Amino acid sequence: MLPAVTGAESLLRTLLLNGVDTCFMNPGTSEMHFVAALDRVPGLRGILCLFEGVCSGAADGYARALGRPASTLLHLGPGLGNSLANFHNARKARSAVVNIVGEHATPHLRVDAPLSSDIATFARTVSSYVRTSTGPADVGVGVSETIAAAWGPPGSVATLIVPADHSWTEGGLPGVQASLTAPAPVDDAVLRRVAELLPLAGTMILLGGMAVNPRALDAAHRISVKTGAKFGIARNAGKMSTGRGRFQPGVVPYFPEGALPFFADTLNLVLVESEVPVSFFAYPGIPSYMVPDSSLTTVLARREDNGTLALEALADLCGAGPAQLSHTPPLEVADDDAPLTLEALGRTVAALLPENALVSDECVSSAVPILTALRSAPPHDSMPVTGGSIGQGLPLAVGAAVACPDRKVVALDADGSAMYTLQSLWTMVRENLDVTVVILANRRYRILDIEMRRTGANGFGSLAESMIDISRPDLDFVKLATGMGMESARATTAREFAKLAREALGRRGPFLIEAML
Amino acid sequence: MLPAVTGAESLLRTLLLNGVDTCFMNPGTSEMHFVAALDRVPGLRGILCLFEGVCSGAADGYARALGRPASTLLHLGPGLGNSLANFHNARKARSAVVNIVGEHATPHLRVDAPLSSDIATFARTVSSYVRTSTGPADVGVGVSETIAAAWGPPGSVATLIVPADHSWTEGGLPGVQASLTAPAPVDDAVLRRVAELLPLAGTMILLGGMAVNPRALDAAHRISVKTGAKFGIARNAGKMSTGRGRFQPGVVPYFPEGALPFFADTLNLVLVESEVPVSFFAYPGIPSYMVPDSSLTTVLARREDNGTLALEALADLCGAGPAQLSHTPPLEVADDDAPLTLEALGRTVAALLPENALVSDECVSSAVPILTALRSAPPHDSMPVTGGSIGQGLPLAVGAAVACPDRKVVALDADGSAMYTLQSLWTMVRENLDVTVVILANRRYRILDIEMRRTGANGFGSLAESMIDISRPDLDFVKLATGMGMESARATTAREFAKLAREALGRRGPFLIEAML
């Protein structure tokens, strides 16, 4: 006779059977049987986070870095609530996440206990799929369906709610294979239509989603050389390959004043895992759509399609041969005694960045000079804040470093942003993750300075000013990091920053640099 | 001609007209006009928090301490997401909160911008009332209705979603009076029925909600002396008056092993702003309801009623005269060189606590010895975690200290719990709040040790163990506090703790003590 399997054991076995071997967790009482099963069902790596927003952001980073899902384990509605902001970014990045949420035992649901809440409604805000298991025998099926929903395509946050008694009761299936869906093949008719329109003046091919990888960029470059079509990168890409030796189309500018000219000549917009580009926010008198109304729009690949294969097929159909990139010279470290600037910081990071690094970009208002410099860095992947929800940068770095232990991870994080999910540092230390954190400390919500003027809210008096100023008291990130066991130091000059960056990027393990700007 | 009023100005004027003069905020672009209006519509105190869970917990603390609502200002769905865990506690405490959430400008809603999400669904998880303004002229009406919904009775989180263009467009009403509802008067028939049943053996009157205040407790004491009825305090009370010189019924024990005997003799349960008591969590083989099925249940006052008036009327109806409490001797400070224990810590806090202090209790697994000692402290109010969502303690202290600047606030916070919303310390420093924070540092999620055994999850191997152990790396709360500009120090012996507690409790302003347990 086979040994009895609890629902929790069935859950773990099903995760493992389907290659989901990592779980970012912050469990509570209703998840204790899942936690206990870690020792009985070997193979699932549990990674404890001190706040659920770290779990969700880490799972997003894991999926972006590795292209397959991790799981999260969260405690009831409020625990899920804490994860939602970063799951919002994961949703916009189309990252696959298998999100497991514990629920009260079913007989306890009718009593409105203190922690009772409508977990499914919490989950619906960010999930493509929400399921509650119906019994221990259903847990394995439920998680296999959740895995399939998470994989997509496109990837998404899929949520399985598991009442505690389903976890602790025997009668679980040993492990259930998920039935994954392959992306649709490239549609030849669409391909031919796009190819026919390519010679049109004003063609702009917008790469997004998963289609900003080296293969896709190489195909794009070939098409560009052969046809003269312009390329751009949409802000919905969860991971963008960039740096020297790669074809580097411009990223759609954040503000409409930049994005409108970017598309001013566009008459033929071709979407590759991207959407018709819109402004991040609305402003009085400025349109929401960034492309002229007169432009044609053709979808070469939807978010659920494989845009990389579509681009390669398009390049072949055009008869585009191999294309050679012009040489980009590397940048030099900024090594003088002047006060540290964003330009110097960007130059130094670009000069010292190890090849194939993963960069978590939460630079916010500091982005332009740094990301411009990074175009001259060795080839690397940059991961932006896809959904605009702040507090993503550090958790994303946690997940990326767990997913890719052989790649250096660099988190470039604005000071205000870092404070939302600073508990990430603790997990970086505990797991000895190879992450260099650079805090961009300008001691303001500086993006709101800009937005305050842009939205026409001109009455920028002292009370409004104090809601944007995050000095008084000044944050000391060296102390904050040390309080979580993380090595750290502060740089106020370009030379100090260069010295710390050499140290942090030249070795393995977590280190935080507070860059005073 | 009257000057034109924007929707944002109408919002602020309506808040102020209805006595809502405090706003805990973490704004973004879509809220810039609200922020700008702070200078044009004087009187609203904006308090910046570095994380939205601090805003929601602070608003809860404000409402509990003062009995009237503050407002919160949050940025879109993800900002609201970060607030939900503490709003869950506010919901269970029936705290009144006027929650304002910015939304994209209406023409921008159709474009699925990166920050687009279903804000109303986020809001529904915790709100009794959700409304989206329909135009600038509707903002004032919307906020007045939201205020009315928040006040109740009972109090609740009520949410108004305001698209940015409604804020920035002129056409707002100057200020709209909210139409508040008075609690229903005490029902004489119910009162007589309860009075008739009072002489029954096994009567247990369970006080909850707002009915654990000095007046209610005095009436309860009179009834107790006159009739011999037993009293208990439900875990749904957001604020409990306790300490020397007050009638102190027992609080329903957290675990069923304590709660079941507490109610074992109960044959006649009388509810005063409380519900039929249930276990916090379910455990295999243990019932959810803590009162014998055979007991009568009578509702003297619902959550929306005034239980205090009902108790006073009941006392009068019974002919209960004034009652004298026996003298409770004060405790002595524990002042020896032994390692600090929970008992010593509780004794010292109880001995030194200023009269009329507000205690934010997030002691979790450390609660029993400390709260037992505090029964001998001078009269004070204790505010527990009503909804079981962890990360409440520090934000609640922020709000209570803003609400009651003349009362000392003491936050007793478990180390694991404090890490969810540690950003609270920054706001305490910025606003120079009179809060003493005591971190109970046992370096474990110790409650989960207990729950792991209780749920029967016996396979407590090394992998499970590491999900409960929050050492590796050790947290250093002195450094963490210093990093946010807060004075702080560590105590490892009873004498060290006593010295620091004397200092912190004997002066005004924020101070953090890391108590090593």
Descriptive account of the structure:
2 copies of one chain form a homodimer. In chain A, 38% of the residues lie in helices and 17% in strands. Chain A has helices at residues 7-17, 32-40, 52-66, 76-93, 119-124, 136-151, 164-168, 188-197, 214-227, 256-262, 307-317, 342-352, 367-374, 393-403, 415-418, 424-430, 446-454, 462-466, 477-483, 494-505; strands spanning 22-26, 45-48, 70-75, 97-103, 129-132, 157-163, 203-207, 230-233, 240-242, 250-251, 268-272, 296-301, 358-362, 380-383, 409-414, 435-441, 488-491, 511-516. The first copy, chain A, has a 7-stranded mixed sheet with strand order 9-14-13-15-16-18-17, sandwiched between helices. A 6-stranded parallel sheet of chain A has the order 2-1-3-4-6-5. The first copy, chain A, has a 5-stranded parallel sheet with strand order 10-8-7-11-12. Chain A has 3 domains: 7-168, 3-Layer(aba) Sandwich (Rossmann fold); 188-317, TPP-binding domain (Rossmann fold, 3-Layer(aba) Sandwich), CATH 3.40.50.1220; 342-516, Rossmann fold (3-Layer(aba) Sandwich), CATH 3.40.50. Chain A contains 20 helices and 18 strands. Chain A starts with 6 loop residues before the first helix and ends with a strand. By secondary structure, chain A is an alpha/beta fold. At the A-B interface, helix 2, helix 4, helix 5, helix 7 and helix 16 of A face helix 2, helix 4, helix 5, helix 7 and helix 16 of B.
